[in-house]
Specification:
Number of strands: 23
CATH topology: Neuraminidase
CATH class: Mainly Beta
Helix content: under 10%
Largest sheet: 5 strands, antiparallel
CATH architecture: 6 Propeller
Length: about 300
């Protein structure tokens, strides 16, 4: 019995070391006391992320008394550095106050954003002003991203957020809290997908189902080039707060049961917005883990 207990202790220690030592996670230089999140790969060696728009004194700019969140584009290096960050140019005439996440279509022609209505552009009817929705814009030289339109399946009484596109741009993944019918949301928010048909037309949104979604909240989906879906969830059984999970699409286009990623990719605090390179050996994530520089920080990770 003594030898058996020692063996269990050894195996437990080995598994713990294997999990915690499999990756090196580094806080990137870009971070500050302000939040950095909403990571999304675009093109080759480029990335989008969300943070505050700052003034010349490095203080968050405000509109209607609220700090302005916007999307930045930056370059990434093979060593994990994020450099040359600049705000994505949004046409000021569009009255878009805050953007919490975004992605660009593979052909570079469209920008999908998560935002809220402002008092200047809110539609008629009763709805919750705190609800998010997804808009699509087009790029015009000298103007920036403009002509934004709300995606036609976004209903006023529900919230839609965190757009992510497949490699070919034909499928849009997003989160929503849609209620009622077969495709009802299981928890606070679920991950859905919809076919992109062109000319701002789409198929019928479909819930990814119980192998991906839970009775808790799913957030920030990202679909890698190998059809692995990464997302965050605060479901029971995690390390604490939001944790990053992955689900692999099989040959029939069905996602397998979601698996929680190990530490140190996950921590005892909120972890989300994970993106990887093509072989999954390195990438980035956002986290509010201890010893960070501020709010949500961006971390670079790499397999040892």
């Amino acid at each position: 019995m003594k030898h058996f207990c020692c063996l269990l202790i050894f195996l437990s220690t080995f598994l713990t070391v294997s999990q915690t030592d499999a990756y090196k996670v580094v806080n990137v230089e870009l971070n500050s006391e302000h939040p950095h999140f909403g990571l999304m790969p675009i093109g080759e060696n480029k990335i989008l992320f969300t943070s505050y728009l700052l003034d010349k004194k490095e203080r968050p700019k405000k509109k209607q008394g609220v700090p302005v969140l916007t999307v930045f584009q930056a370059a990434i290096s093979s060593e994990g550095h994020i450099t040359n960050e600049v705000p994505v140019q949004i046409d000021p005439k569009q009255n878009i106050v805050n953007i919490t996440s975004a992605t660009i279509s593979p052909n570079g022609k469209n920008l999908f954003i998560t935002t809220r209505y402002s008092y200047k552009n809110k539609p008629q009817g009763n709805f919750n002003m705190d609800n998010f929705h997804i808009e699509i814009g087009e790029y015009k030289a000298g103007v920036g991203w403009t002509n934004f339109k709300v995606l036609p399946f976004c209903k006023l009484k529900y919230s839609y957020a965190h757009p992510a596109l497949s490699k070919d741009g034909k499928i849009l993944y997003f989160t929503a809290n849609v209620r009622g019918g077969r495709e009802t949301t299981r928890g606070g928010s679920d991950i859905f997908k919809v076919d992109v048909l062109g000319n701002n037309t789409y198929g019928e949104p479909k819930n990814l189902g119980s192998k991906v979604n839970s009775y808790s909240r799913e957030m920030f989906p990202v679909i890698a080039n190998d059809n692995t879906l990464y997302f965050a969830s605060n479901r029971p059984g995690g390390f604490g707060g939001y944790d990053v999970y992955k689900s692999v699409m099989d040959e029939h286009g069905v996602f397998t049961k979601a698996e929680k990623l190990p530490k140190p990719l996950n921590s005892n605090k909120d972890d989300f917005s994970l993106i990887t390179n093509d072989n999954g050996a390195s990438g980035y994530l956002s986290s509010k883990r201890l010893k960070g520089k501020g709010d949500d920080d961006i971390y670079y990770f790499k397999k040892k």
